[in-house]
Design goal:
With about 130 residues, this protein is an alpha+beta fold. The chain contains two helices and ten strands. The protein folds into two domains: about 40 residues, no CATH class; about 60 residues, CPE0013-like (CPE0013-like fold, Roll). It has a five-stranded mixed sheet with strand order 8-5-6-10-9, with no helix packed on it. A three-stranded antiparallel sheet has the order 1-2-3, covered by helices on one side. Strands 4-7 form a two-stranded antiparallel sheet.
């Protein structure tokens, strides 16, 4: 799983799976990768995923056509590869919401071919403040 990762220089990853915030030390060995410092089993899985294919949720805003609410907040409804965040942000910069959307409405389906939708996280356009 982590064979293509160069760990000749050990890395430290701070785990965010639980509130412990463990500092997981990742060191290459002849047998693969050794993880130390995690307080629970989920930490090793998290560190391995961070080394091979880091995933993130994206929370941002998109423009609207409404003067009383020029932007509306959105987020991905799942995680996307960290390397795709810039491309997704650029694609969202081209979107202008022209209808009254509410929490959970899909703003962009399958954004950038990721299989993840971008959804509205505010009722700002339904109930302007």
């Amino acid at each position: 799983m982590t064979d293509s990762i160069d760990l000749s220089i050990p890395r430290v990853i701070v785990c965010i799976v639980c509130p412990n915030g463990c500092r997981i030390h990742c060191e290459g060995t002849e047998d693969g990768v050794r993880f130390t410092g995690q307080k629970c089993k989920r930490g090793e899985s998290y560190a391995a995923a961070e080394l091979t294919r880091p995933m993130r949720s994206l929370t941002t805003s998109v423009r609207t056509a409404f003067a009383e609410a020029p932007v509306v907040s959105v987020r991905t409804d799942g995680e996307v590869e960290k390397s795709m965040l810039q491309e997704i942000s650029s694609a969202l910069g081209q979107i202008v919401v022209t209808s009254r959307v509410k929490i959970g409405d899909v703003i962009a389906k399958n954004i950038c071919g990721t299989g993840v939708n971008v959804i509205c996280t505010s009722d700002r356009l339904v109930h302007p403040y």
